[in-house]
Amino acid sequence: MEVAEVESPLNPSCKIMTFRPSMEEFREFNKYLAYMESKGAHRAGLAKVIPPKEWKPRQCYDDIDNLLIPAPIQQMVTGQSGLFTQYNIQKKAMTVKEFRQLANSGKYCTPRYLDYEDLERKYWKNLTFVAPIYGADINGSIYDEVCFCYTGFVKHHFMLLLLPF
Fold this sequence. Notes:
InterPro entries: JmjN. This is JmjN domain-containing protein. There is one protein chain. The protein is α+β, with helices and mostly antiparallel strands and about 160 residues long. The protein has 2 domains: about 1-50, no CATH class; about 60-160, no CATH class. It contains 5 helices and 9 strands. Strands 6-5-8-9 form a 4-stranded antiparallel β-sheet. Strand 5 (about 75-80) and strand 6 (about 85-90) form a beta hairpin. The longest helix is centred in the last third of the chain and has 11 residues, at about 115-125. Mean pLDDT is about 80; it is low at about 150-160.
């Protein structure tokens, strides 16, 4: 199991960790999630998983436009000088098509950046100005039925995320 950017097994700095599972590990993603947490990935709140080269994503995303996101969450952050408060607002239901249009809008599209550190700086700088929107715990799947590597976790629960830029 290959892991990048790990300072210690418990990840005390709460860095976002990068994982590169083998195809066998990717097939049993629930077990791999447990492994990621054992390395401290959960301390950062998210992790980057790079799928194995032989994994193939969905052939086409045209047939998920009408998939409903029943309760999108807008994450509001207020504060300054290192003291911030975060609260969530449940928004009205929207389809994946509406979510995609919002994601591609000027408000949420990815800005130009020099490297990932620059992109992360822009994220934190804009967080109090533009609230991210999450579409979490959506029933269904964004993977093809023929995708041999999805698990119950991936099939039944996925999250869409609009970052503030």
